[in-house]
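tool=predict chain=A
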Amino acid sequence: MRRASTYPHPAGRVERVETHISIVYLAGRFAYKIKKPVDLGFVDFSRASARYRACEDECRLNRRFAPRIYLRVVAIVRRGRALRIKGTGVSVEHAVVMRRFDGKRIFADLIDAGGLDGETIERTAVDIANFHRHAPRIPPRRAYGASDFCAHQLRSVISDLHTVAPRLIPEDLTDWCEAELVRLDAHFEQRREQGFVRECHGDLHVQNIVLHGSRPLIFDCIEFDAGLRWIDVASDVAFFVMDLEAHGRNDLAARALSAWLLTTGDYAGLEAWRFYVVYRALVRALVESLKRHTDEARRYVRTATRAARGGSPYLLLCHGYSGSGKSAASAALARVIGAVRIVSDIERKRVTPFAAPRGGRLPREAYNPVAIDQHYDHLLELTRNVLDAGIAAIVDATFLLRAHRERFMELARALRVPVLILDFVAPRSTLFARVASRACSQDGPSDADVVVLKQQFLNAEPLECDEQRVTETFQTNVDLHAFEQRAFWHSLMVRLHQIRHQEARSTSAELS
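tool=predict ok
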């Protein structure tokens, strides 16, 4: 296979790349991936028929993500003493033929080189979300995604880690995992019954995504074990987010999660978020341990430990009339501080998770007082999902009524989470101009027009004294690019720093 004459095209100098289950030959513009005849327990390629079936599955499954890369499966035949790709002769093996790509454009290398930007990450997360939306959702085995199956998968990883790398996993992390399995038992079953266990990628780490031109392409999904790809969609995207965190890019991880959630609306999946991040980190720790990359394995265990401990979430409530710029400002702020943004206008038009928001204006009854109250109840539940997962939340809604604001303040108090109100202000002339322009262009999900804005002026209840004490005001009659600058948010940054400092002092006092 190292000979150029083996290939039916110009091959040049053939390179050989080996993993624990595959050998890849890089020949000219193509790559040939062959399965090793190994039995590692979690994968058994000892029989030629199993290797051929795995090649067929790999090509079929990965073409869902990267049809430009995965081309076909070919036979490798022996002709005398030589091997040939296809042609006459005795078939001795099969290979997946792939179009080569620039290895320096793999996400892991781009991160190390500082060449991966937030827009590319968000585009990748949206691609993942759209794939999840259309992925098959009737598992070939009912056990896939069940609580017992999830428990078996996690315990197998931990057991293998104890064998391969004794003392690598802290005992308290193992205890946390067992406690989470108990807590999430009903959640796993509910998600399976609701159709969130789908045929996913299964191995969505940053070594398996490449920037091909300007588009991210995902490759090398799990083909050898259906149980590892028929999983909860939240578990699938958690792999991607976790690996960004493990590579020291919490900012990119936050943008990936926020983009995926905005596209899918699957905030309920966050109930098991920390569990999935821990599980995925331990999977990578096991892989790196098998390759004897001790430092890398420890890095993933540290990532798992941080996830198990949880974050220090806080809640930011947007406040302002339609046209006040709160949506554009909060979108920029979410990118600056690494928070998940819940957008009222989007969620109002989303019927169910993974359903695209309905187009066009909603009927008038969608905006009567009862419907509005119900909508804020829904936003409240989504916010609880985010905060319970240990993630900071920004709720992009008008919050013009005291009763709606108070429900969210009560949630923050119940969860012992700091809360701030972000009051977005612009001159009335600017508000009317923005709303009229948006209504004419039908740009964005908002249904607000001049009539709606006038009604808001009549019904809005001003912030009370107790609310003003936790309010930061921002004048938004500025160029939109100003929102992207940390200087615009200086007063909020100072406030958040003070909150974190107070939390650290409280934690220290409790421990002492």
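The chain has a mean pLDDT of 94. The chain has three domains: 4-100, 105-309, 315-511.
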